[in-house]
Amino acid sequence: MGFIEWLAGIKEPVKPNNPLQGMKINLDAESRMRVQELMRIVESAGLLKTMLKVTPFILMWQEPGKFSKAFSIWNSDWDAICSCASAVDKIKRNRVELICDLEIIRTSGNEQYFWQVMRILYR
């Protein structure tokens, strides 16, 4: 995994010990919609986290003059910015677990096993 992937929050695909490898799972229409919703949540959480990291620096460099930039750097609440960025992962995890839990209750067989594995992979 390269620096760009790490910065963007992209994880390497699970290759060794992949519990879904070789399984044929037929997802119904509602499960396919849930998978798309899950992917949107993961993508938007990554974008939101990146924006939370970049925005303070963009706002800082918009300030005119050296003194105001230094004051902006000194006056910024870096702890709050970090806690907001780390909260994105918690929110994403809660949303993914909610979707997976609802689908685990609704489905059965291989489809239910698929949702159980998805819940574990996105922890």
Give a structural overview.
The structure is a single chain. With 123 residues, this protein is mainly alpha-helical. It has one domain (28-121). Helices cover 75% and strands 0% of the residues. The protein is built from 5 helices and no strands. The relative contact order is 0.15.
Give the low-pLDDT segments.
Answer: 3-8
Helical coverage, percent range: over 70%
Give the total of beta strands: 0
**Order of H and E elements:** HHHHH
Overall radius of gyration: 20 Å
- What is the total domain count? 1
Distance between the termini: 20 Å
Shape type: elongated
Major beta sheet summary:
none
Beta-strand proportion: under 5%
The residue-averaged pLDDT reads: 76
Structural classification? mainly alpha
Q: Figure out the total of helices.
A: 5
Give the structure's gist in a few sentences.
Helix content is 75%, strand content 0%. By secondary structure, it is an all-alpha fold.
Write the layout of secondary structure elements.
Elements: H1 3-8, H2 29-62, H3 66-75, H4 78-106, H5 109-121
Search tags:
123 residues; mainly alpha; 0% strand; disordered N terminus
